[in-house]
Amino acid sequence: MASSIASRWRELSGEKGWEGLLSPLDPDLRRYIIHYLQRAGAAGDAFNKTKASKGYALSLFPPEEYFDRAGLEKGNPYHYEVTSFIYAATDNQAAYIGYVAVTTDEGKAVLGRRDILVSWRGTITEAEWKDDAKIFQTSAKELFGTDRAQVHSGFYSIYTGTIQDSLYVKISARDQVRQAVQELVDKYQDEEVSITVTGHSLGAALATLNAMDIAANGWNKPTGNPNKTFMVTAFPCASPRVGNSDFKGIFDRLKYLHLLRIVNSNDIVPKVPILFYTHVGVELGIDTTKSPYLKSDISAHNLEAYEHGIAGVQQNGNFELEKELDFDNAVINKYSDGLLNVFKIPDNWWNNEKFKNMVQMDNGHWEFVDSAYVPPLATV
């Protein structure tokens, strides 16, 4: 597994537009996409939702423990370290919205290069829901140098907003990522480097903006060395549309940028906004309604269901989990009750505490360890 991805990473990152890899879905590309969707999920898993906490709206996990506490170390060969958190300004409030990470030496050996990763989480706070609803367009001239490129005003506000008296968003999320990525590009410029951007839902929209911004403004070039350019790839999952046709025109002209959108057939989010909006990049469609493992009422927007879909989508339209992927279906119930009851996995078990007796094994899979007391049968 490791050696094939290490030798094929450019192809898997879209250097040839994923030609010949999507139907049937290439086994290495399945692993690759699931890996990046898991990193997108980690951005949301770490969010502190407890309003009474002094750390509300910040990351629950410190950088040095981040991926271990997100469940992405045990049994996982793709090792990264978080170098920076990303904070956004929404409705005059600051909130942690993602992170920048880079592969360790061990992770570099598995993935074939030094991968700089930017991950954006989905909508959580009330202020973010309000921004999601701001579908009127605004100029993205600050990013792309032209008023003709128009983008979703709510997404743009989250990406570029600041609060001058804030400890966290005195500079925008955009500039935080620019500084963090440029620092890593400069540090590792003598190695083979990639920049990968991922996110789910709102995070997918921000990942699209951010990946285009990186490629358009040369943050993928070492400082003082404009002749060296590193490839930028985005894996946005369940993304709404972000901009207009001129926005897409800019995307199409960016030579070193590749984007693969993952879309579940019944998910409404990738279908909006409608008027004056268009998608960018290559689309990979899945259909989780075909899965024999899921309840019929599971949300088509659920991130773990998307991962499950990638593991099982087949060229003939059927669904069959690829055995060699060894996908862990227990994660489907992290934030849902979507896995069939026969599998006996507690619903909504991810709570950053005791996980409802879900325990991670050394191979990375989660199992239910039932420690409940059962009274003995009465004797007569």
What features would you describe in this structure?
This protein has 380 residues and is of the alpha/beta class. It contains eleven helices and eleven strands. Helix 1 crosses helix 4 and helix 5 crosses helix 7. The radius of gyration is 21 Å and the shape is globular. 50% of the residues are buried.
Number of helices: 11
Tell me roughly what share of residues is in helical segments: 25-40%
SSE succession? HHHEEHEHEHEHHEHEHEEHEE
> What is the average per-residue confidence, as pLDDT, rounded to a whole number?
95
Low-confidence stretches: none
Count of extended strands: 11
Strand order of the main beta sheet, please? 1-2-3-6-7-8-9
Give the class from helix and strand content and strand pairing.
alpha/beta
From the spread of the alpha carbons, the general shape counts as globular
Distance separating the two termini = 59 Å
Which range does the strand content fall in?
Answer: 15-25%
Radius of gyration: 21 Å
Largest sheet: 7 strands, mixed
Which descriptors apply to this entry?
380 residues; alpha/beta; seven-stranded mixed sheet; two-stranded antiparallel sheet; 11 strands
In brief:
The chain has 380 residues and is an alpha/beta fold.
Write the layout of secondary structure elements.
Elements: H1 2-12, H2 27-45, H3 66-69, E1 80-90, E2 93-103, H4 105-111, E3 114-120, H5 126-132, E4 137-139, H6 141-144, E5 150-152, H7 153-160, H8 173-187, E6 193-200, H9 202-216, E7 231-237, H10 245-252, E8 257-264, E9 282-286, H11 303-312, E10 358-360, E11 366-368
Parallel strand pairs: 3-6, 6-7, 7-8, 8-9
Antiparallel strand pairs: 1-2, 2-3, 4-5, 10-11
Helix pairs in contact: 1-4, 2-11, 5-7, 7-9
